[in-house]
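re: the backbone from monday

yeah here it is again, tokenized this time
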């Protein structure tokens, strides 16, 4: 299977999967036109659309794509999204066809209440829940929900490839460096990302093992991270959920 990154809007990524037999699947097509252009240029038929959550920059392309290609549209059962034909629950399986992996659906509320991810080792398509170096804003969920969602991802194999939906890595790592100024893994990664962005190159997908070493939202159990969150918030934070909430609030105003 081949995976292509399609740029949309200012910093969105639409992921397109090809099976080598003229069929494609897209993840979170907020804009139909760049997908249509790629499909036409590469003589591909769109077999299915995978949707992680209801925000327009992830769903806006569904109607136009469905007009051109009579495909299945898979999305979260707990959110109302126009055009979804298959509503998915936690741990359901999504079988797409020959040479495509069978994905397991993972509920991951936090960014939105019904947010889901699609996982098939080593691929994790996680929408706006986990970013390279960070996580999504907590628009609808609670710190406990969001923290639990990220903890679920942390249990996946370390070689999991994280396909998030935005190019936010450089800003995320600036925040990570503020939280853990002594973390040399963050410093090294930040320099690498800055070099890539200077050349207008993408920084995702990333590896889960790299996220575990450098992403503060996956490191709420680390003493230095808790201490930094406590110092910034001026509160004693007795649990990883409270550390996460303090970090998310800090990042929102960073």
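seq for it, each position gets an aa:
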């Amino acid at each position: 299977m081949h995976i292509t990154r399609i740029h949309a809007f200012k910093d969105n990524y639409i992921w397109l999967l090809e099976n080598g037999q003229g069929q494609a699947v897209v993840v979170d097509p907020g804009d139909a036109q760049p997908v249509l252009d790629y499909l036409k240029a590469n003589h591909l038929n769109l077999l299915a659309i995978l949707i992680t959550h209801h925000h327009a920059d992830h769903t806006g392309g569904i109607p136009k794509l469905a007009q051109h290609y009579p495909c299945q549209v898979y999305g979260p059962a707990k959110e109302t999204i126009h055009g979804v034909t298959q509503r998915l629950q936690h741990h359901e399986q999504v079988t797409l066809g020959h040479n495509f992996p069978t994905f397991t659906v993972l509920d991951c509320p936090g960014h939105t209440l019904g947010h889901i991810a699609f996982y098939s080792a080593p691929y994790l398509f996680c929408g706006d829940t986990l970013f390279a170096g960070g996580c999504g804003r907590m628009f609808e969920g609670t710190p406990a929900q969001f923290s639990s969602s990220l903890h679920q991802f942390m249990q996946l194999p370390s070689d999991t490839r994280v396909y998030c939906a935005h190019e936010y890595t450089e800003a995320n790592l600036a925040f990570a460096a503020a939280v853990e100024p002594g973390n040399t893994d963050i410093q090294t990664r930040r320099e690498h990302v800055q070099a890539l962005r200077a050349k207008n190159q993408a920084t995702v997908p990333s590896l889960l093992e790299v996220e575990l070493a450098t992403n503060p939202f996956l490191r709420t159990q680390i003493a230095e991270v808790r201490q930094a969150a406590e110092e910034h918030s001026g509160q004693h934070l007795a649990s990883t959920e409270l550390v996460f909430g303090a970090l998310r609030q800090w990042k929102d105003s960073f």
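The first strand starts at residue 2 and ends at 8. The CA atoms of residues 30 and 58 lie 4 Å apart.
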